[in-house]
Write a structure and sequence with these properties.
Keywords: Membrane, Transmembrane, Transmembrane helix. This is L-ascorbate metabolism protein UlaG, beta-lactamase superfamily. InterPro entries: Metallo-B-lactamas (IPR001279), RibonucZ/Hydroxyglut_hydro (IPR036866), UPF0173_UPF0282_UlaG_hydrolase (IPR050114). The protein is α/β, with parallel strands linked by helices. The strands form 2 sheets. Strands 6-5-4-3-2-1-14 form a 7-stranded mixed beta sheet. The protein has a 7-stranded mixed beta sheet with strand order 7-8-9-10-11-12-13, covered by helices on one side. The longest helix has 25 residues. The mean pLDDT is 93. Bound molecules: zinc ion. The site of zinc ion has 5 residues, from loops.
Length: 340
Protein backbone atom coordinates (compact mmCIF):
# COMPACT_ATOMS: atom_id res chain seq x y z
CA UNK A 1 0.00 0.00 0.00
CA UNK A 2 2.74 2.40 1.02
CA UNK A 3 4.65 1.50 -2.16
CA UNK A 4 1.62 2.15 -4.33
CA UNK A 5 1.17 5.57 -2.75
CA UNK A 6 4.82 6.32 -3.39
CA UNK A 7 4.46 5.26 -7.02
CA UNK A 8 1.52 7.58 -7.59
CA UNK A 9 3.32 10.49 -5.94
CA UNK A 10 6.28 10.00 -8.27
CA UNK A 11 4.00 9.59 -11.29
CA UNK A 12 2.03 12.75 -10.49
CA UNK A 13 5.30 14.61 -9.84
CA UNK A 14 6.69 13.57 -13.22
CA UNK A 15 3.40 14.47 -14.87
CA UNK A 16 3.51 17.97 -13.39
CA UNK A 17 7.14 18.43 -14.43
CA UNK A 18 6.39 17.36 -18.01
CA UNK A 19 3.39 19.70 -18.08
CA UNK A 20 5.45 22.65 -16.80
CA UNK A 21 8.23 21.88 -19.29
CA UNK A 22 5.69 21.80 -22.13
CA UNK A 23 4.19 25.14 -21.10
CA UNK A 24 7.66 26.71 -20.79
CA UNK A 25 8.55 25.43 -24.28
CA UNK A 26 5.29 26.67 -25.78
CA UNK A 27 5.97 30.14 -24.40
CA UNK A 28 9.42 30.36 -25.99
CA UNK A 29 9.79 32.60 -29.03
CA UNK A 30 9.39 30.53 -32.22
CA UNK A 31 12.76 31.46 -33.69
CA UNK A 32 15.27 34.26 -33.37
CA UNK A 33 15.24 37.67 -35.01
CA UNK A 34 19.02 37.39 -35.38
CA UNK A 35 18.53 34.69 -38.03
CA UNK A 36 16.75 37.25 -40.20
CA UNK A 37 19.22 40.12 -39.95
CA UNK A 38 19.62 40.20 -43.70
CA UNK A 39 16.03 41.45 -44.02
CA UNK A 40 15.97 43.71 -40.98
CA UNK A 41 15.83 47.43 -41.52
CA UNK A 42 18.19 49.43 -39.37
CA UNK A 43 17.47 53.11 -39.00
CA UNK A 44 21.03 54.15 -39.77
CA UNK A 45 20.75 52.83 -43.34
CA UNK A 46 19.25 55.94 -44.84
CA UNK A 47 18.18 59.13 -43.18
CA UNK A 48 15.01 60.30 -44.89
CA UNK A 49 14.20 63.97 -45.12
CA UNK A 50 11.55 64.69 -42.49
CA UNK A 51 9.07 65.76 -45.15
CA UNK A 52 8.99 62.41 -46.95
CA UNK A 53 6.40 59.80 -46.16
CA UNK A 54 7.54 57.52 -43.37
CA UNK A 55 6.11 54.74 -41.25
CA UNK A 56 6.82 53.40 -37.78
CA UNK A 57 5.89 49.87 -36.75
CA UNK A 58 4.81 49.25 -33.14
CA UNK A 59 4.13 45.52 -33.36
CA UNK A 60 1.03 43.51 -34.39
CA UNK A 61 -0.44 45.87 -37.02
CA UNK A 62 -0.12 49.21 -35.26
CA UNK A 63 1.51 51.46 -37.87
CA UNK A 64 2.05 55.19 -37.76
CA UNK A 65 2.20 56.90 -41.16
CA UNK A 66 3.69 60.37 -41.12
CA UNK A 67 4.44 62.87 -43.90
CA UNK A 68 5.90 65.48 -41.56
CA UNK A 69 2.62 67.31 -41.39
CA UNK A 70 -0.15 64.79 -40.90
CA UNK A 71 -0.13 61.43 -39.15
CA UNK A 72 -2.46 58.52 -39.77
CA UNK A 73 -2.48 55.58 -37.41
CA UNK A 74 -3.58 52.08 -38.32
CA UNK A 75 -4.84 50.28 -35.20
CA UNK A 76 -4.09 51.31 -31.64
CA UNK A 77 -2.33 48.76 -29.49
CA UNK A 78 0.52 49.91 -27.27
CA UNK A 79 -0.34 48.67 -23.76
CA UNK A 80 0.47 45.05 -24.62
CA UNK A 81 -0.55 43.31 -21.36
CA UNK A 82 1.30 40.12 -20.40
CA UNK A 83 -0.15 36.70 -21.18
CA UNK A 84 -0.95 36.18 -17.48
CA UNK A 85 -2.86 39.46 -17.38
CA UNK A 86 -4.77 38.59 -20.53
CA UNK A 87 -5.69 35.07 -19.43
CA UNK A 88 -6.36 35.60 -15.75
CA UNK A 89 -7.54 39.19 -15.36
CA UNK A 90 -9.43 41.77 -17.37
CA UNK A 91 -7.42 43.78 -19.88
CA UNK A 92 -6.95 47.50 -19.55
CA UNK A 93 -5.43 50.31 -21.55
CA UNK A 94 -2.48 51.96 -19.74
CA UNK A 95 -2.89 55.78 -19.89
CA UNK A 96 0.77 56.37 -18.90
CA UNK A 97 2.01 54.12 -21.72
CA UNK A 98 -0.17 56.03 -24.19
CA UNK A 99 0.96 59.36 -22.80
CA UNK A 100 4.58 58.35 -23.24
CA UNK A 101 3.98 57.17 -26.82
CA UNK A 102 2.07 60.36 -27.65
CA UNK A 103 4.98 62.49 -26.43
CA UNK A 104 7.78 60.37 -27.83
CA UNK A 105 6.28 60.09 -31.32
CA UNK A 106 4.48 63.46 -31.35
CA UNK A 107 1.13 61.87 -32.01
CA UNK A 108 -0.63 65.23 -31.63
CA UNK A 109 -0.51 65.41 -35.43
CA UNK A 110 -2.61 62.24 -35.75
CA UNK A 111 -5.74 63.10 -37.66
CA UNK A 112 -7.16 59.61 -38.04
CA UNK A 113 -7.00 56.19 -36.40
CA UNK A 114 -8.21 53.45 -38.75
CA UNK A 115 -8.92 50.15 -37.03
CA UNK A 116 -8.62 46.83 -38.87
CA UNK A 117 -10.87 44.89 -36.46
CA UNK A 118 -11.93 44.91 -32.85
CA UNK A 119 -9.82 42.20 -31.21
CA UNK A 120 -7.90 43.61 -28.26
CA UNK A 121 -4.49 43.27 -29.96
CA UNK A 122 -5.66 45.84 -32.51
CA UNK A 123 -8.09 48.04 -30.62
CA UNK A 124 -7.31 47.95 -26.88
CA UNK A 125 -5.99 51.51 -26.73
CA UNK A 126 -8.24 53.35 -29.15
CA UNK A 127 -10.43 54.90 -26.44
CA UNK A 128 -7.42 56.17 -24.51
CA UNK A 129 -5.86 57.45 -27.75
CA UNK A 130 -9.12 59.17 -28.66
CA UNK A 131 -9.18 60.94 -25.31
CA UNK A 132 -5.53 61.98 -25.39
CA UNK A 133 -5.82 63.05 -29.05
CA UNK A 134 -9.10 64.98 -29.11
CA UNK A 135 -8.44 66.25 -32.66
CA UNK A 136 -8.26 62.76 -34.11
CA UNK A 137 -11.04 60.73 -35.69
CA UNK A 138 -11.50 57.03 -34.98
CA UNK A 139 -12.70 55.07 -38.00
CA UNK A 140 -13.85 51.48 -37.74
CA UNK A 141 -16.72 49.03 -37.51
CA UNK A 142 -19.67 49.44 -35.15
CA UNK A 143 -17.79 47.18 -32.74
CA UNK A 144 -14.70 49.36 -32.89
CA UNK A 145 -16.72 52.51 -32.25
CA UNK A 146 -18.32 50.83 -29.24
CA UNK A 147 -14.86 50.29 -27.75
CA UNK A 148 -14.23 54.03 -28.12
CA UNK A 149 -17.67 54.86 -26.69
CA UNK A 150 -16.96 52.70 -23.64
CA UNK A 151 -14.06 55.07 -22.90
CA UNK A 152 -16.25 58.18 -23.29
CA UNK A 153 -14.63 59.34 -26.52
CA UNK A 154 -16.63 62.23 -27.97
CA UNK A 155 -19.21 61.12 -30.54
CA UNK A 156 -17.84 63.76 -32.98
CA UNK A 157 -14.58 61.83 -33.14
CA UNK A 158 -16.23 58.59 -34.27
CA UNK A 159 -16.79 57.67 -37.91
CA UNK A 160 -18.34 54.41 -39.02
CA UNK A 161 -16.15 52.79 -41.66
CA UNK A 162 -17.51 53.21 -45.21
CA UNK A 163 -16.03 50.40 -47.31
CA UNK A 164 -14.58 51.46 -50.67
CA UNK A 165 -15.24 55.16 -50.03
CA UNK A 166 -11.94 57.05 -49.86
CA UNK A 167 -11.42 59.54 -47.02
CA UNK A 168 -8.95 62.44 -47.07
CA UNK A 169 -6.78 63.48 -44.14
CA UNK A 170 -4.17 66.03 -45.21
CA UNK A 171 -2.39 64.43 -48.18
CA UNK A 172 -3.53 60.94 -47.14
CA UNK A 173 -6.30 59.25 -49.08
CA UNK A 174 -7.44 56.16 -47.19
CA UNK A 175 -9.88 53.52 -48.40
CA UNK A 176 -11.25 50.67 -46.30
CA UNK A 177 -11.54 47.34 -48.11
CA UNK A 178 -13.63 44.53 -46.57
CA UNK A 179 -11.30 41.73 -45.57
CA UNK A 180 -11.15 38.34 -43.94
CA UNK A 181 -9.72 37.54 -40.52
CA UNK A 182 -7.09 34.85 -39.90
CA UNK A 183 -8.87 31.46 -39.54
CA UNK A 184 -10.26 31.31 -36.00
CA UNK A 185 -8.65 29.41 -33.16
CA UNK A 186 -10.20 28.18 -29.89
CA UNK A 187 -9.47 31.56 -28.25
CA UNK A 188 -10.83 33.88 -30.96
CA UNK A 189 -13.66 31.93 -32.52
CA UNK A 190 -15.92 34.97 -32.80
CA UNK A 191 -15.56 36.08 -36.41
CA UNK A 192 -18.40 38.31 -37.54
CA UNK A 193 -19.69 38.70 -33.97
CA UNK A 194 -20.12 42.29 -32.88
CA UNK A 195 -19.69 44.44 -29.80
CA UNK A 196 -23.22 45.82 -29.60
CA UNK A 197 -22.87 48.03 -26.51
CA UNK A 198 -20.22 50.53 -25.41
CA UNK A 199 -17.40 48.38 -24.01
CA UNK A 200 -16.03 49.61 -20.74
CA UNK A 201 -12.50 48.71 -19.70
CA UNK A 202 -11.17 46.72 -18.00
CA UNK A 203 -12.78 43.91 -19.97
CA UNK A 204 -11.96 40.26 -20.57
CA UNK A 205 -10.15 39.79 -23.88
CA UNK A 206 -13.04 37.70 -25.19
CA UNK A 207 -15.32 40.75 -24.95
CA UNK A 208 -13.38 42.29 -27.85
CA UNK A 209 -15.42 40.65 -30.64
CA UNK A 210 -13.93 40.74 -34.11
CA UNK A 211 -16.78 42.76 -35.62
CA UNK A 212 -15.61 42.28 -39.28
CA UNK A 213 -12.16 43.01 -40.67
CA UNK A 214 -10.83 45.66 -43.05
CA UNK A 215 -7.69 46.26 -45.05
CA UNK A 216 -6.66 49.87 -45.63
CA UNK A 217 -5.38 51.27 -48.89
CA UNK A 218 -3.34 54.41 -48.30
CA UNK A 219 -2.57 56.68 -51.23
CA UNK A 220 -0.13 59.51 -50.76
CA UNK A 221 2.06 61.52 -53.17
CA UNK A 222 1.64 59.01 -55.99
CA UNK A 223 2.33 55.99 -53.79
CA UNK A 224 0.03 53.16 -52.90
CA UNK A 225 0.32 51.23 -49.69
CA UNK A 226 -1.92 48.41 -48.49
CA UNK A 227 -2.16 47.36 -44.87
CA UNK A 228 -3.53 43.87 -44.45
CA UNK A 229 -3.43 42.96 -40.77
CA UNK A 230 -4.91 39.47 -40.79
CA UNK A 231 -3.90 36.26 -42.54
CA UNK A 232 -7.05 35.96 -44.61
CA UNK A 233 -8.36 37.24 -47.93
CA UNK A 234 -11.74 37.72 -49.54
CA UNK A 235 -11.40 35.91 -52.90
CA UNK A 236 -10.55 38.32 -55.77
CA UNK A 237 -11.11 41.37 -53.56
CA UNK A 238 -7.71 42.86 -54.46
CA UNK A 239 -7.42 41.58 -58.01
CA UNK A 240 -7.55 45.01 -59.72
CA UNK A 241 -5.08 46.61 -57.36
CA UNK A 242 -1.32 47.13 -57.57
CA UNK A 243 0.64 48.66 -54.71
CA UNK A 244 4.16 49.92 -53.99
CA UNK A 245 4.34 48.69 -50.42
CA UNK A 246 2.38 45.88 -48.80
CA UNK A 247 2.15 45.42 -45.05
CA UNK A 248 1.13 41.79 -44.86
CA UNK A 249 -0.15 39.89 -41.83
CA UNK A 250 1.50 36.52 -41.42
CA UNK A 251 0.19 35.42 -38.00
CA UNK A 252 -0.32 31.65 -38.01
CA UNK A 253 0.52 31.31 -41.69
CA UNK A 254 2.73 28.33 -40.86
CA UNK A 255 -0.19 26.63 -39.10
CA UNK A 256 -2.40 26.68 -42.20
CA UNK A 257 -2.52 24.06 -44.94
CA UNK A 258 -0.18 24.34 -47.91
CA UNK A 259 -3.21 25.11 -50.06
CA UNK A 260 -4.28 27.95 -47.75
CA UNK A 261 -0.77 29.40 -47.76
CA UNK A 262 -0.51 29.39 -51.55
CA UNK A 263 -3.99 30.83 -51.98
CA UNK A 264 -3.26 33.58 -49.44
CA UNK A 265 -0.05 34.54 -51.24
CA UNK A 266 -1.84 34.39 -54.62
CA UNK A 267 -4.57 36.74 -53.41
CA UNK A 268 -2.14 39.20 -51.83
CA UNK A 269 1.58 39.28 -52.63
CA UNK A 270 1.41 37.75 -56.11
CA UNK A 271 -1.60 39.76 -57.19
CA UNK A 272 -0.58 43.12 -55.67
CA UNK A 273 3.02 42.92 -57.00
CA UNK A 274 4.50 45.33 -54.44
CA UNK A 275 8.07 46.59 -54.66
CA UNK A 276 8.38 46.03 -50.93
CA UNK A 277 6.56 43.70 -48.55
CA UNK A 278 6.73 44.31 -44.81
CA UNK A 279 5.46 41.42 -42.67
CA UNK A 280 3.26 42.37 -39.73
CA UNK A 281 1.52 40.51 -36.88
CA UNK A 282 4.51 38.25 -36.23
CA UNK A 283 5.64 39.61 -32.88
CA UNK A 284 4.92 38.36 -29.39
CA UNK A 285 2.30 40.90 -28.37
CA UNK A 286 2.43 39.83 -24.72
CA UNK A 287 5.75 41.70 -24.42
CA UNK A 288 5.79 45.37 -23.42
CA UNK A 289 6.25 48.04 -26.07
CA UNK A 290 9.59 49.26 -24.68
CA UNK A 291 11.29 45.93 -25.43
CA UNK A 292 12.60 44.85 -28.83
CA UNK A 293 10.03 42.82 -30.74
CA UNK A 294 10.47 39.07 -30.65
CA UNK A 295 8.72 36.26 -32.49
CA UNK A 296 5.37 34.87 -31.37
CA UNK A 297 5.70 31.97 -28.94
CA UNK A 298 5.28 28.42 -30.28
CA UNK A 299 1.91 28.42 -28.56
CA UNK A 300 0.63 30.87 -31.18
CA UNK A 301 2.70 30.22 -34.31
CA UNK A 302 6.00 29.11 -35.76
CA UNK A 303 7.04 32.58 -36.86
CA UNK A 304 10.33 31.46 -38.35
CA UNK A 305 8.36 29.16 -40.67
CA UNK A 306 5.75 31.80 -41.50
CA UNK A 307 8.48 34.29 -42.38
CA UNK A 308 10.34 31.79 -44.54
CA UNK A 309 7.17 31.07 -46.52
CA UNK A 310 6.78 34.78 -47.22
CA UNK A 311 10.49 35.31 -47.98
CA UNK A 312 10.44 32.49 -50.53
CA UNK A 313 7.38 33.88 -52.29
CA UNK A 314 8.78 37.43 -52.27
CA UNK A 315 12.12 36.31 -53.73
CA UNK A 316 10.37 34.43 -56.53
CA UNK A 317 8.81 37.65 -57.79
CA UNK A 318 11.67 39.97 -56.81
CA UNK A 319 9.71 41.82 -54.20
CA UNK A 320 12.00 43.10 -51.50
CA UNK A 321 11.12 41.96 -47.97
CA UNK A 322 11.82 44.37 -45.14
CA UNK A 323 11.55 43.35 -41.52
CA UNK A 324 10.80 46.23 -39.17
CA UNK A 325 11.65 45.28 -35.60
CA UNK A 326 11.33 48.53 -33.71
CA UNK A 327 9.39 51.79 -34.01
CA UNK A 328 11.90 53.75 -36.07
CA UNK A 329 11.03 55.80 -39.13
CA UNK A 330 11.11 53.74 -42.30
CA UNK A 331 10.97 55.86 -45.47
CA UNK A 332 8.28 54.84 -47.95
CA UNK A 333 9.74 56.93 -50.74
CA UNK A 334 10.59 54.43 -53.52
CA UNK A 335 13.78 56.35 -54.31
CA UNK A 336 15.04 55.73 -50.80
CA UNK A 337 13.92 52.11 -50.85
CA UNK A 338 15.54 51.14 -54.11
CA UNK A 339 19.01 50.39 -52.77
CA UNK A 340 20.50 49.71 -49.38
ZN1 LIG B 1 -7.91 39.30 -34.59
Amino acid sequence: MANQKGFWRVAVGIGILVGVAAVVLLLQPSGQMSNFQKWQYSSSEKAAAPATLQVKFFGVSTLLFDDGKTQVLIDGFFSRPSIAQVLFTKTQSQPQVIQHIVQQHQLQRTQAIFVTHSHYDHALDIAELGKQLPNSKIIGSRSTLNIARGGQVSEQQLLLVQPLRPMMFGQFRVTAIPSQHTPPTAVNNDLGEEITQPLQLPAHFSAFKEGHSFDYLIEHSGQRILVKASTGAVPDQLKNLKVDTLFLGIAQLSRQSEQFQQNYLDQTLRSLQPKVVVPVHWDNFFQPIDQPLEFLPYLADNTEQSLKILIRAAEQQRTRLVLLSQPVSYPLDPALQSDR
